[in-house]
Amino acid sequence: MSIEQKIDGNIGKLFVDGEVDLDSSPELRDNIKDLIDNVKTIEVQLSKVSYIDSSGIAALVEGMQLSKSKSKEFFLTDVSNEVIKVIKLAHLDKIFQIKNVTGTNAAEVSSEPETIQEPEPQASENVDIAPSEEPQQQYDNEETENKETEETNPSIKRDDDDGDKIKFKR
């Protein structure tokens, strides 16, 4: 990983290149802290970052929190696809202020295809599991009259004593 630091007035920019992992994240953290002390706005440019792990994300979160505590602005700019995937996976795309070079929100522009939601399972139309007095009484009557047939034929019975449990007998 390499980091280039530029200060333009009250704006400090970090240009991060390569892989941000456990070995290189302390360097990123130190550069962010250095900029926070010297400028009013911090921009971390991540377009050339090909890999980032949890320690790199932690360095960015720590920088953002330190910036807020010192009333500074903190932005991630021109975020690469690899980094935005990790940020979204950690649900941090709502926390970080993310923009690309043109100033549009890079978190909204995703190269990932939309995930298709699978249909929710629906109850079968063949079995009514809604509580009803009449069918329950019918099952109770059948149970006392036909104990022999019940043992040989499968049946479904609602047991209201145990909540919504359904008992199956074979």
How does this model look, in words?
There is one protein chain. The protein has 170 residues and is an alpha/beta fold. It is 34% helix and 27% strand. It has helices at residues 25-38, 54-69, 81-89, 133-145, 147-152, and strands at 2-8, 11-20, 41-52, 73-77, 98-99, 155-159, 165-169. A five-stranded mixed beta sheet has the order 1-2-3-4-5. Strands 6-7 form a two-stranded antiparallel ribbon. Helix 1 (25-38) runs parallel beside helix 2 (54-69). It is globular, with a radius of gyration of 30 Å.
**Rg result:** 30 Å
Order of helices and strands: EEHEHEHEHHEE
First-to-last CA distance: 66 Å
Q: What general outline do the C-alpha atoms trace?
A: globular
Unreliable stretches (pLDDT < 50, length at least 5) are 101-116
Helix content: 25-40%
Which SSEs are present, and which pair or pack?
Elements: E1 2-8, E2 11-20, H1 25-38, E3 41-52, H2 54-69, E4 73-77, H3 81-89, E5 98-99, H4 133-145, H5 147-152, E6 155-159, E7 165-169
Parallel strand pairs: 2-3, 3-4, 4-5
Antiparallel strand pairs: 1-2, 6-7
Helix pairs in contact: 1-2
Précis, in short:
The chain is of the alpha/beta class and 170 residues long. The protein contains 5 helices and 7 strands. Helix 1 (25-38) packs parallel to helix 2.
Write out key terms for the chains shown.
single chain, 170 residues, alpha/beta, five-stranded mixed β-sheet, two-stranded antiparallel ribbon, 5 helices, 7 strands
